[in-house]
Amino acid sequence: MKKLNITTGCNYKVTNKQTKQVHILNAQEAADFAFKNDFKNYKFEEVKQGILYNIPEIVLWIMLFVLTFASFALHLKLNY
After folding, report:
1. CA-CA distance, 76 to 24, in Å (whole number)?
2. Which whole number is the average pLDDT over 16-45?
3. DSSP code of residue 55
């Protein structure tokens, strides 16, 4: 029996192997779809997230700090 791993929080591209019909589903919908249909007739692929999900969180915090500091410095320069 073929095993199917569905991870919470991911989106899936589900393709019918015979008709090539494609569905984009979140994890809950993909699990319901696999349970209700014969999942052996479908190909489940995890959809890759955008570029924002590939950036480490620390880099985002550093960028926020730098932009906040730059904004504050520009505010002081323009108003005083």
Report:
1. 49
2. 90
3. S
Question: What is the model's pTM?
Answer: 0.56
Helices assigned H by DSSP within the chain:
27-36, 57-79
How high is the pLDDT of residue 52? 66
* Nearest Cα residue to 49 out of 10, 23, 14, 13: 10
| 48, HSE (Cβ side, Cα atoms, 13 Å) | 4
26 exposure class (CB count in 10 Å sphere: 0-12, 13-18, 19+) = middle
> Which tens digits make up the pLDDT trace of 31-76?
898 889 888 889 999 887 777 666 788 888 999 999 999 999 999 9
Burial category of 73 from C-beta neighbours within 10 Å (exposed 0-12, middle 13-18, buried 19 and up): exposed
Q: How far is CA 75 from CA 67, 68, 69, 70, in A?
A: 12, 11, 10, 8
